[in-house]
Amino acid sequence: MEFLAQVGHYGLFTGRVAKRIVLGRFPFQALLRHLYTLIVRCMLPVVAVVFPFGMVIALQGLSIFSWFGAERLLASLASVAIIRELSPVLASVLVAAQGGSATAAELGAMRIKEELDATEVMGVDSISEHVAPRVLAMTLACPVLNLFGTVSGILGAFVTAVFIKDENAGVFIAQLWAFTSTGDLLASAVKTTVFGMIIGTTAAYLGFHAAGGAAGVGRAVNNTVVVSVLFFITANYFLTSALFGHIG
Amino acid sequence: MNALFTLGRFGWFCADFLRATTRRPPPIARSIEEAWRIGVRSLPILFIIACFVGTNLALQGYMAFEPLGGQHLVGMFVGLAGIRELAPIIAASMVAAKAGTEMASQVAVMRIQEEVDALEVMGVNPHWYLVTPRLLGILLVLTALTLISMVAMVGSAAAVAVYQLGLNGQHFTEMVASTMTMAEIGYGVLKSLLFGTIICLVSCYCGYYSKPGPEGVGSATNSAVVCAAVTCVMLNYLVSEMVYG
Fold this sequence. Notes:
The structure holds 2 protein chains of 2 kinds. Chain A is mostly helical. In chain A, 85% of the residues lie in helices and 0% in strands. The longest helix of chain A is centred in the middle third of the chain and has 39 residues, at 74-112. Chain A is elongated and about 70 Å long. In chain A, 53% of the residues are buried. Chain B is mostly helical. Helices cover 88% and strands 0% of the residues of chain B. The relative contact order of chain B is 0.17. Classes of the chains: A mainly alpha, B mainly alpha. Chains A and B meet through helix 2, helix 3 and helix 8 of A and helix 2, helix 3 and helix 8 of B.
């Protein structure tokens, strides 16, 4: 029962945030500032995780394809895997771990130090002042970071295949777009926008309702990562089936 | 400079921890308690996430192999990708997200409430008291978590392959079974144990040197999960290169 109440509470909170975003009732300057800090903060972790993963894909892919003598297919299959699945998911996990938890920590600390109450007392709507720009910034930053993740993942695969395993660079580049198109990039952007929305609202909800001192902030940060990853991985399966499906 | 300073301090932290652990027998009862807490708390999350990663593995494997007419290879793809790479890294990143952040925030709260200083005053080595049981707990439980996520991943992939994609179930099972050798599973588990060690040390380090106040706890927790995840994925490449390269 308590779980259902939480879900309903979260839904109401999201509705209130969405209303302010749709009506444009939030400080535009704050949106730009949050967008900038999010992208700068998350860039390094996203690149540092997706790049080695691209390298691992090339390594494992080559070891599998060499059984069939089909090493030249590596680039086309690696780009399918990276663009459609790995980069969106890994970039969003890192955005949740870095950006989402920072959002929850900021809002949680503001709640614990009663800054949010002070804002309300001054007659300023705390949701449109503090929450809406953060949620919108997360929604917009996620696809941008995903793009950087995709590029670095493919670069990682290229580095392993060409420089370490001595595959032909020309074949790699020529095969890159064999099974993928700009439609895949768009679908990957749609996916990450949805993921960003999930991360942003979860982080804002948990941070906004943090309670119980410094330990409460820690708990909110902890739950943000876990709950948002859980939600968007579940959403990922349905999005993949819907966007790339036409089978089954 | 800042990064070098942090790296050096982390090195000292690990050295202090090693010295403290080898000097005294570990607290067995508290290690088992930690193992129970880490395992039970992470299990439901890990199980659900591994299931959904498995479903997507089957979907993407099918889409990748279908244009080449290699649908029957999906089972092998799921087996290899799941057991070699994804199950260890997913188990590790979920333990980092759930148990690692919890460790960081617990230790950070103890730090800012001066409980760590109190331990030192009482003559208890804080490394031995805080880090050793957590590391033992994580190592005890991570093998089981990795094996469970392997099973969940392959099981959900099989369900998608048979019911959504209409592949032959028996053929799929045979393909998976041919890749699931003891050696592959063993390497996967060893990898996840290495990741577990890193997660525990990094998370405890971030909490141990937390800055004061609620923001300090928040940012310690935040940097714990990010540093642990980035280090694990980077090491993953090196280990894969050594084992399978």
